[in-house]
Amino acid sequence: MSAQTSLPEKGLNPGLMCQESYACSGTDEAVFECDECCSLQCLRCEEELHRQERLRNHERIRLKAGHVPYCDICKSPNGHSPGVRQRAFVRCQSCKNNLCLECQKRTHSGGSKRRHPITVYNVSRIQESLEAEEMDEETKRKKMTEKVVSFLLVDENEEIQVTNEDDFIRKLDCKPDQHLKVVSIFGNTGDGKSHTLNHTFFYGREVFKTSPAQESCTVGVWAAYDPIHRVAVIDTEGLLGATVNLSQRTRLLLKVLAISDIIIYRTHADRLHNDLFKFLGDASEAYLKHFTKELKATTARCGLDVPLSTLGPAVIIFHETVHTQLLGSDHPSDVPEKLIQDRFRKLGRFPEAFSSIHYKGTRTYNPPTDFSGLRRALEQQLENNTTRSPRHPGVIFKALKALSDRFSGEIPDEQMAHSSFFPDEYFTCSSVCLSCGVGCKNSMNHAKEGLPHEAKSRCSYSHQYDNRVYTCKACYERGKEVSVVPKTSASTDSPWMGLAKYAWSGYVIECPNCGVVYRSRQYWFGNQDPVDTVVRTEIVHVWPGTDGFLKDNNNAAQRLLDGMNFMAQSVSELSLGPTKAVTSWLTDQIAPAYWRPNSQILNCNKCATSFKDNDTKHHCRACGEGFCDSCSSKTRPVPERGWGPAPVRVCDNCYDTRNAQLDITEAQADEEGGTLIARKVGEAVQNTLGAVVTAIDIPLGLVKDAARPAYWVPDHEILHCHNCRKEFSVKLSKHHCRACGQGFCDECSHDRRAVPSRGWDHPVRVCFNCNKKPGDL
């Protein structure tokens, strides 16, 4: 505050002089009144006095015209009615004291003091005007809060309940360009957090729900907008309550703390418990360790105009007692804030993240609780913009959304360190190395930003996971670290030439910079191990969801099968049309006379399903019509048509009318007898060919399993497409992605791309997901 008196301030109260005489000798006009110093002060005395640490937080007001001071004796610690605020009625010019009517009668009614000159204040008129002004202002404020309602911001599962930034502003019921701060409250369950917010900001209206029941009435995080102070008020769930998902709910509290400008820690205990100091100390440590970096990243990522402060909020400890004195009452020389810092130090907690910590206590002899001191402390902190400045509501929502996206997911109980309120497991990746058991040190959901897993210590080798990687020794000596893998052929060889070289001289190790540096059978004898000559070995961590590192990438057998399958498929596709036409014609030639020709059967005679090129048509041996497989799956002898005594395929209708006699003439029977023999011979030939095909398919499957690269998922484990989840069947073939080894249908794996890390240097089949990855596969 400036020591210079502005022109409007001069002459406002010519009868009120400085009562401190600390810097002015009592000759300057009073400009301030300090409630806790119990005196009127000029500009110089007010500035010099309250520069001291123990007097810095005193409540003081600037005097207005016609100001009537309080009675000096009433407000004195030794006065007759401590705590009762009485306005002065007169001022004794000799004693230099302001006296109310009662104190004036008691102290100046006898002796020589009766003749002291006094100045009478016009108390009644000023009092009435002040009360009327205060009443009008109070009425306006109450009216502004009549329509305020709270809404659920985040539920108990850490899921934000507002859809976007506009929805958040609409529920807050504030303007999008309004600058506001965030005030949140913390404390144990049942300590009256919601009640405190209702009386501090909303004049006792139940904006936040309160309940006398044992169960907690606040679940999750609720928010409301205070139009008077222009703050977003946030109510949180209480600590130490009987609840599920305790770890996630505790982590949610720190997210709210991170977006707050002021937090109130509400306690109703007669003495301050250690839980309060442990909570704030652990929250400070977790904030600095995990949230500071994320808030900086959010500012850059979201392009926010107002930077998010990396320094934590201001803390106000609101302590209400009934039977005990307030903190510092028995140590007048020490301010409460110093005693609080001593408690933190004794417990080994250091609240370095918070911009300031203040103590505001009230002792309730008889209800209701007095929240005026807390309200004044909040208003003082809201006016302080040196550390955290107001910002748009959209910035607040983006910060909360970014923190929720980053720090989310379940927290395994077996990994919890319960010695802290906010252990690292709440905010770090839950993945653990499969080889050595060390956890990842990165933040949660770091994969969304393309960051790999990292550990604090080195890994140990495990034969089960073969967690070795090879790097080119020559490149390493030149200051480069280039990974290499054993594979079937060099990238410069054609597929068939690579197979030929592999059969003659074995697998190769190829460096992108040095070319082929090793062949396993380069010489007839005396071939050395590559680790001893051209590569160096490094042991790396094995994270869940990743493959091994030096698995067999020798895919020569699979390459050979792929080539044979390609040739066979080409021949099959080219000959498919003529083969089906010849087969259909030949079947019609040997079919009995009463069978409908294949060329005339377009739909199933019962369900009317249209036949496609790959669908098989079946003739009923009784009526001769064409059916699909499901409508002609039953069998019985048909002796009247010459099919017997063995059961043959019939349609459902003919099976149900098995006892009915067919009206067949003798000539028809003779004609059918001749063609029936040809048909039976044809079916025998078809069954024989089918058995031959089956006999070929079975060993082919065994060969495929034997030729499968080690990183491929076995065929018998692939039941559905890894991408679209379609189940594989006879009509839906399964294909392996050459990069990840998972099984896909043709639609989800029709892309072609080289996969050098797996030994496929020429374009091969890859799935959609692997094809989207940047760089070399």
Automatic annotation (TrEMBL):
Pfam families: ANCHR-like_BBOX, FYVE
Domain FYVE-type, chain residue ranges per copy: 598-659, 715-775
Localization per record: Endoplasmic reticulum; Golgi apparatus, Golgi stack; Lipid droplet; Mitochondrion
GO molecular function, one term: 1-phosphatidylinositol binding
GO terms, biological process: cellular response to starvation; host-mediated activation of viral genome replication; lipid droplet formation; macroautophagy
Predominant subcellular localization, coarse grouping: endoplasmic reticulum
Keyword annotations of the record: Endoplasmic reticulum, Golgi apparatus, Lipid droplet, Metal-binding, Mitochondrion, Repeat, Zinc, Zinc-finger
Cross-referenced InterPro entries: P-loop_NTPase, ZFYV1, ZFYVE1_first_BBox1, Znf_FYVE, Znf_FYVE-rel, Znf_FYVE_PHD, Znf_RING/FYVE/PHD
Cellular component GO terms held in the UniProt record: autophagosome; endoplasmic reticulum membrane; extrinsic component of omegasome membrane; Golgi stack; lipid droplet; mitochondria-associated endoplasmic reticulum membrane contact site; mitochondrion; perinuclear region of cytoplasm
Subunit (UniProt): Interacts with RAB18 (in GTP-bound form). Interacts with BSCL2 in a RAB18-dependent manner. Interacts with ZW10.
Listed name of the protein: Zinc finger FYVE domain-containing protein 1
